[in-house]
Amino acid sequence: MARSRYMISLVFLTFFVMSLLTNILGPIVPDIISSFHVSLAAAAFLPFSFFIAYGVMSIPAGFLVERFGEKPVMISAFLAGTIGSLSFAFHPTYQVAVVSLFIMGSGMATLQTAINPLLRVAGGEEHFAFNSAFAQLIFGSASFLSPYMYSYLVLNLGKAGTGSDPVLKLLARNTPPALPWASLYWIFAAFTNVMIVVLYFSIFPRVERSSEEASGSWSMYGDLLRRPMVWAFFFCVFAYVGSEQGTADWTSKYLSTYHGYDPHTTGAIAVSWFWGLLTAGCFIGMGLLKLFDSRRVLIGTSICALVCLSVALFAPARVSLVAFPVIGLFASVMWPILVSLGLNSVAEHHGPFAGILSSGIMGGAVVPLVIGRIGDHFGLRTGVAFLYLTFGCVLSVGFWAKPLITNATVNLKKAVPEPTT
Length: 421
Prior knowledge:
It contains 19 helices and no strands. It is an all-alpha fold and 421 residues long. It has a single domain, classed as MFS general substrate transporter like domains (Growth Hormone, Chain: A, Up-down Bundle), CATH 1.20.1250.20.
């Protein structure tokens, strides 16, 4: 089959829009609390409603893609994103936000299932690893940029009446003055609508799924779910995504509560740098994985993340402001290592196992909610300290994982020439 640069670009664009919608929740948590006058746990229920959709949709989405194909499923997923965005944009209330975020999360979970096989076919199997890494870079860049977009809108929307920016004027007319951050959802609706149009007029290649990518049968899932090791990896992926989202969702509120930083500027930028360093750390991690066993890399980065968490919680304001984003640098390699160790620990049913691991993304729903609940009763510092447990789960994998195949490393000893006499 002919390769398609256009289709590769379309997949990269999809990753960008997915990230834009997914990782804006962290910066807006302080606004959710102040705008809707809700508790920490109630604020955390919004990211919960988004990420729990991954647990609900990850496995069914695989069956939908196999039944209907990538194009109609992706269009439907972006349509869900549009419906979710517009419902909150028209009715910005807490109750509507819960429902709309679940709808948006369902769409994003479905997209994630559809686009990886498409990228393999469009770019060629031999380039899949490189294209996947580049896609994660695109995903991370959107996560880095979205808090800046949030800050720009919140700081400038009130000035739209005297300014000359037509976009700001349009958003100001359709956004309650007390909720300038809600204007983001008009932007999201615009992005998802554009994607629907682009996808509709795009010609998709035929995707022949390998046995490794097939969703599998219910009997395969049953066989896997009877294995304790599968559950262990599921819960550790659950813990990792919970750690990632728990850090991102509560950083801005923590810095505001304990150190007085403005969540619209300093807090949002801290979250932005968390995602930026998480993206940059992927390149460092790729180098480390060429030198060391992935389990050792996981142990080292997990310990460093725990040290940064301790500094973020107990150091002075300026140090805490740096320590929170740096957690992202060390968390960057945890996801690929966990997934590769998991898939390399079974000899068959890799497609269904990947679906089970993807369901672990619902950890991004549960852990921030637990942090909020603890924070309501014992203070946010105690709530964020719950991340010691989740990062500790990730750390444990480095000690008990026994993959059938280990990652290839460079033998430096062979590279050193023997001294001449």
